[in-house]
Amino acid sequence: MKQWYQIYKPELADTVRLSIPIVIAQLGVVLMGVTDNLFVGRLLGAIPLAGAGLSVSLTFLVSSIGVGGLSVIAALVSQANGRGDTAEINRLFRAGLRVALLLGLVLGLIGTAFAYHFEVFGQTPQVTEIGRNFMLILSLSNIPLFLFIAARQLCDGLAQPRVAMSITLSALVLNAVFNYVLIKGVGPFPAWGVYGSAVATLLSRVFMAVAIILYIRRADLFQRYFQPAFGAFRVGDYVRKILRLGLPGGFTYFFEAATFSLAAMMAGWLGADQLAAHQIAINMASTTYMMATGISSAGAIRVGSALGRSSQTAVRRAGVAALWLVTGFMGFTALIFLTANDWLVSLYIRDNADVAAVAASLVIMGGFFQLSDGVQVVGVGILRGISDVNVPTIITLFAYWIVGLPLSYVLGFWLNLNAAGIWVGLLAGLTMAAVLLPLRFFRLIRRMKVETTEKPLYN
């Protein structure tokens, strides 16, 4: 055991150092939606909150394809960095911005189509009107968001995640200020009410995109990747490569996000109390999941760098370190969920004993699927680090939509286990993915040829 620790200690330390800023940056992006809901709910009331909250959820679901798809760029950058290929890093950066613009436009149009048909979600006329207009603004804001994410991949891939972290935290503060000013109408600014919150998110995301691109282009740290000669190199092949590798990863992200959205819909069929309990428990699980995604991103970068050096041993160690790290972290959160479930629920609700009781039982179940949730998202990350994206997409589609969701429906409704049955189904799907994805990684590593640097590790 001591020998194992000595071997993996440097890899674990590097993964922790890389993952912490990524976790903070990712939480910052998610917390913008939380900030919008908090300001709208406190300043305007329940109906505007319902419209804004539903719009945030739907926009996130559509944008998840782009967010997941662009994340492959960091792994490609880390591979190129492992080979010492500065020209390729430059081309990946420029190609990434083009892909971000393309995805922003395409997914923005899809979001716009959803907005104009908002009535299909069966909401009241007032909520439908608010949700439609709110979603139109948020769909536009996906363009600067994707540009920020694409540029951030350069920083993360080069093991400089603090850049994106600092900009994201700054934008989070700006978003809070813009929310208050534009909702209430402070000084010369107009009082736009609920739509001021959406504009606040748009302005914050524009700031993020402009700030990170300007920093990358001007900071001495990145100048070696922007030599004048690199500008003549075409990037069309890299645009196609990012789309070919990124879109399957984007749909992997989408399948999981859609699974939890559909689970929430099923919980709503059981009644308001069951839905409220589900939302409380899933909010806690989502917070720990975001931590795990940071470890997943760090694992992808470390694995990609090792692949660039053509080191089979380093690839395996980077993957194992990420898996052990997420197992330790999610094991700790599982212990908290299992032992402090009543106290955690009391942070959300105190005046409804029925909801609190159901939520407390769901938090216990959330404790059981913490490990599965963490291992499966890291499994996706380390496979992305070796450019294996197609099979993981099939695995997640099978695990979530063939195993998880049908089982949730059967247990929740046919066997009358209600919300608990829905969560057992989610646990089954996550566990299936948590088993199959790491197995895929280790199978590919065994087949890896040490001398290969340009070919993917999979058939």
| Amino- and carboxy-terminal Cα gap | 35 Å
How many helices does DSSP assign?
15
Question: Which structural class is indicated by helix and strand composition?
Answer: mainly alpha
Order of helices and strands: HHHHHHHHHHHHHHH
Helix content: over 70%
Main sheet: strands, sense, barrel: none
Q: What proportion of the residues form beta strands (DSSP E)? A: under 5%
Pfam family, one: MatE
Subcellular location: Cell membrane
GO molecular function: antiporter activity; xenobiotic transmembrane transporter activity
Transmembrane segments: 12-34, 54-78, 99-118, 130-151, 163-183, 195-216, 250-269, 289-308, 320-338, 358-383, 395-414, 420-439
Detailed description of the structure:
The protein has helices at 2-44, 46-70, 72-83, 86-116, 125-157, 162-184, 194-218, 236-269, 272-308, 312-339, 341-346, 353-368, 370-385, 390-414, 418-447. It is mostly helical and 459 residues long. It has two domains: 6-234, no CATH class; 250-459, no CATH class. Helix 8 runs antiparallel to helix 9 (272-308), helix 10 (312-339) packs antiparallel against helix 12 (353-368) and helix 14 packs antiparallel against helix 15 (418-447).
How would you sum up this structure in a few lines?
This protein has 459 residues and is mostly helical.
Features:
459 residues, mainly alpha, globular, single chain, 0% strand, 2 domains
Furnish the topology, listing elements before pairings.
Elements: H1 2-44, H2 46-70, H3 72-83, H4 86-116, H5 125-157, H6 162-184, H7 194-218, H8 236-269, H9 272-308, H10 312-339, H11 341-346, H12 353-368, H13 370-385, H14 390-414, H15 418-447
Helix pairs in contact: 1-2, 1-6, 1-7, 1-9, 1-10, 2-4, 2-5, 2-8, 3-4, 3-5, 3-9, 4-5, 4-8, 5-7, 6-7, 8-9, 8-14, 8-15, 9-10, 9-12, 9-13, 10-12, 10-13, 10-15, 12-15, 13-15, 14-15
